[in-house]
Design goal:
mainly alpha, Arc Repressor Mutant, subunit A, 2 domains, 6 helices
């Protein structure tokens, strides 16, 4: 599994890209100024860093993702469960539900997911 690590601000910046892609780098700089209060140089520095990590690409000024938002957060979740709970999803769920009670709707959704998984 590729190690994609983003800080809070980098994640907010990545969300701007995912929500607007494909996006021209100059438009991205304007949105970053509006939403994150960044200078143009900060936008380009962080963009280059995320491109170097293999999450995005900037081809002739057009920024697109190489990793979808869903894939990115799925990888982050897998990594968290692996590192924190020895890869045990049941252990994660026990820890999670010991402080946060699931709603009947959430329980039904989980049951449906397990049933669909068992059916293949």
């Amino acid at each position: 599994m590729k190690d994609y690590q983003l800080g809070v601000i980098e994640s907010r910046f990545a969300d701007i890209i995912w929500e607007n892609e494909p996006i021209h780098s100059s438009t991205l700089a304007k949105k970053s100024e509006e939403e994150l209060h960044w200078k143009k140089s900060t936008t380009y520095t962080v963009l280059k860093r995320l491109c170097d990590k293999g999450i995005f690409q900037n081809v002739k000024g057009t920024v697109t993702s190489l990793v979808s938002r869903q894939e990115f957060y799925s990888l982050q979740s897998e990594k968290f469960v692996e590192e924190t709970f020895d890869g045990s999803l049941p252990a994660f769920l026990v820890a999670f539900t010991s402080r946060k009670k699931l709603t009947p709707k959430e329980v039904a959704e989980l049951r449906k997911m397990v049933e669909e998984y068992e059916e293949g």
